[in-house]
Amino acid sequence: MAEQRRFLSAAGVPIALRRRQHSASCRELAVRGPRLQLRSLSAVTSAVWLAAYGLFALSENSMVLSAAIFITLIGLIIYLHFVKIDQESLLVIGSLGIQVTSSYASGKESTTFIEMAQVKDVVINEAIHMQKVIYYLCILLQDPEDPQGVSEVVPLFQSSKPRLDCLIEVYKSCQEILEQRKTVPQSNEIK
Amino acid sequence: MSLQVTAMVLKVFFPSCCSSADSGILIGRWISEQNSAVVLAVVHFPFIPVQVKQYLGEVQRVTKVSVSVLGSWSNSKQEKEESLSEFLEDLGTIFCHEPWIQISKEGDSKFWSCSILQKHSKNPQEEEIILVYYDQRKVMLSHLHPPLDTAGQRAEDASKLSAIFDTVARSQVLFMTDRYDEGPIKLTHWQSDGVEASIIVELLKQASVPACMLLTFLLSLLSGICRSRVLKFWPLSFLWSKLSTCEQLGHRLQHLQVISSNKKAQNQNQLMRKANIFVSLLIDVALGILLMSWLYRKNRIGQLADTLIPVADHVAEELQDLLQWLMGAPAGLKMNRALDQVLGRFFLYHIHLWISYIHLLSPFIEMILWYVGLSACLGLTVALCILSDIVALLTFHIYCFYVYGARLYCLKIYGLSSLWRLFRGKKWNVLRQRVDSCSYDLDQLFIGTLLFTILLFLLPTTALYYLVFTLLRLLVVIVQGIIHLVVDLIDSLPLYSLILRLCRSYRLAGESLSSAPAALQAFCIMCLILVHWVTPELRMQWG
């Protein structure tokens, strides 16, 4: 079953959270950011081409125009493939692990998988980002030597930066699954 | 204490290549600590259970992986047949395995049904089953193995998924039989359509053994010659230690010895090291031969030799101009005329000697260059080292000037400091390594003060000569340093690991690519140091 709700990101941009429950111990949460707007694309392209035309008028060298076209094309490709993240999703499978996927606008997907044994907890933290204080969700990884220690903090939803209300929904869904592993003893040993 | 049986999740790892296989039974490994089953292959009908058990026993002995029959797989093209499902349940009694996994797929339906048969559990509960598809080939080839040689407690902390990877990787023997083999057992796994092998790889493996032996023999001959007493006499050994070419050749000889050794690599690190050295040598020789083919075309060697003498002349003229400038009033400073003239004339005579020496050598330069250029086929690094040695030899006079200037300056500073102590009535106690007071005689004081004054007023002249020649020497050292940087980069960059990371990253999945990031980091640091070296020199040029 899937449900979709609209929220705002830390910058005020509208984002959508989609929750799917595949089974009792498997949940998928996806945050989708806004698509590339046509007007911002046209604005940037026109600005670059106007500047190139101005340079051409000054220097009478037609290479400037072809260079501007190349730069626009290559810049757009690099932006779509490496910078613009369309959707960030979190797949939590109890007893297996957590998978974090980022899908870029060009279709590229980059995935990270964290085993359940390494996951200590999923928490909401505060951070100072530029001139704001924002909330972010992160996974705390277990330190193998020290059972109480945290070896690493993996921040989630870094490019869409949802606000606290969206993060609370995600947090509640994750904690429902993480709690299951605490109530289930790890093995069926005869003590 | 009672058994705590709860609704534990059961994980089944199913290979994606078996999803279109015909009905049969599943064989694989059951990991009870993680409540997960790793399916390695599907055995098709007809089979004789005794033969299957025998085969599994053999596989278990060879691979040390506890392979057993895990359940049944049914892929029926038509509607679900009742008799087949009963037959599959009965199989569960022949191959008793707790729990018995039944996976079935109907026709073209996208949905599979997966159920568990638990015969001996006291309170049967609905267990949740997670089916994970895995690509057998990539899982087998990726090196995500648990560290086997660490202490026992570490093995428990090792990640659970690495046990899955390890199981698949160690069962390589199971994947060696394909469907064209005449045997009682018919398996489906990732290689069942034909064992994957490359003719080139097999040929290389066959050819590598005699090639290694030949190489080892040649290398032992070479190292025997190098270690002979003839080459250890004083002038020659001094020369060998100063020439960077010999050092680089020795380095490469060592690398060749590592590659051509007959022992197989013990662990992953050694294998990667050997592969990296091999790729680096290959690229080195390829680049060297490319350079050679470029040099020997269109008589470039002749052109190079022709420009060498005028360049040396030009450098000597520039140096003479510099010395004339120093002998006058450099930068408005007033020098001591007599000392200035002496030092200037001394260095000028030196340059004159050097120029005559170069002119003496000029008819032979082209031939020497031609033969030396042939050694570029040993590798680009050797060619670069030879270039660095040629630069060192051509600027030998600058080195000499630096040495003279430094010695003079050093003497002067020592004299000044000791006479300064005398001026204040103190002395350096060598035994106690400290400054003690001392009462001097009057004539000692008189001569000491006189000498001190002379040395002090001669200091600016010597200091200026020292500064100028040190800067020149620094320039030459920078050029040589850049060349050595490039040589070290070619030597130590782990190209094989980098290429593997780019093309087949699954093969390096669990490994820390500790060598590659470290090499890249070292490269960045070297570039930064280089920038810091070069900028003062550039500022001097522009200023």
TrEMBL record, chain A:
<dbReference type="Pfam" id="PF10181">
    <property type="entry name" value="PIG-H"/>
</dbReference>
<feature type="transmembrane region" description="Helical">
    <location>
        <begin position="36"/>
        <end position="56"/>
    </location>
</feature>
<comment type="pathway">
    <text>Glycolipid biosynthesis; glycosylphosphatidylinositol-anchor biosynthesis.</text>
</comment>
<dbReference type="InterPro" id="IPR044215">
    <property type="entry name" value="PIG-H"/>
</dbReference>
<dbReference type="InterPro" id="IPR019328">
    <property type="entry name" value="PIGH-H_dom"/>
</dbReference>
<keyword id="KW-1133">Transmembrane helix</keyword>
<protein>
    <submittedName>
        <fullName>Phosphatidylinositol glycan anchor biosynthesis class H</fullName>
    </submittedName>
</protein>
<feature type="domain" description="Phosphatidylinositol N-acetylglucosaminyltransferase subunit H conserved">
    <location>
        <begin position="89"/>
        <end position="158"/>
    </location>
</feature>
<keyword id="KW-0472">Membrane</keyword>
<comment type="similarity">
    <text>Belongs to the PIGH family.</text>
</comment>
<dbReference type="GO" id="GO:0006506">
    <property type="term" value="P:GPI anchor biosynthetic process"/>
</dbReference>
<keyword id="KW-0812">Transmembrane</keyword>
<feature type="transmembrane region" description="Helical">
    <location>
        <begin position="63"/>
        <end position="82"/>
    </location>
</feature>
<dbReference type="GO" id="GO:0000506">
    <property type="term" value="C:glycosylphosphatidylinositol-N-acetylglucosaminyltransferase (GPI-GnT) complex"/>
</dbReference>
Automatic annotation (TrEMBL), chain B:
<dbReference type="InterPro" id="IPR007720">
    <property type="entry name" value="PigQ/GPI1"/>
</dbReference>
<feature type="signal peptide">
    <location>
        <begin position="1"/>
        <end position="20"/>
    </location>
</feature>
<keyword id="KW-0472">Membrane</keyword>
<protein>
    <submittedName>
        <fullName>Phosphatidylinositol glycan anchor biosynthesis class Q</fullName>
    </submittedName>
</protein>
<keyword id="KW-0732">Signal</keyword>
<feature type="transmembrane region" description="Helical">
    <location>
        <begin position="444"/>
        <end position="468"/>
    </location>
</feature>
<feature type="transmembrane region" description="Helical">
    <location>
        <begin position="342"/>
        <end position="361"/>
    </location>
</feature>
<feature type="transmembrane region" description="Helical">
    <location>
        <begin position="401"/>
        <end position="423"/>
    </location>
</feature>
<dbReference type="GO" id="GO:0016020">
    <property type="term" value="C:membrane"/>
</dbReference>
<feature type="transmembrane region" description="Helical">
    <location>
        <begin position="368"/>
        <end position="395"/>
    </location>
</feature>
<dbReference type="GO" id="GO:0005783">
    <property type="term" value="C:endoplasmic reticulum"/>
</dbReference>
<keyword id="KW-1133">Transmembrane helix</keyword>
<keyword id="KW-0812">Transmembrane</keyword>
<dbReference type="GO" id="GO:0006506">
    <property type="term" value="P:GPI anchor biosynthetic process"/>
</dbReference>
<feature type="transmembrane region" description="Helical">
    <location>
        <begin position="512"/>
        <end position="534"/>
    </location>
</feature>
<feature type="transmembrane region" description="Helical">
    <location>
        <begin position="207"/>
        <end position="226"/>
    </location>
</feature>
<feature type="transmembrane region" description="Helical">
    <location>
        <begin position="474"/>
        <end position="500"/>
    </location>
</feature>
<dbReference type="Pfam" id="PF05024">
    <property type="entry name" value="Gpi1"/>
</dbReference>
<feature type="transmembrane region" description="Helical">
    <location>
        <begin position="277"/>
        <end position="296"/>
    </location>
</feature>
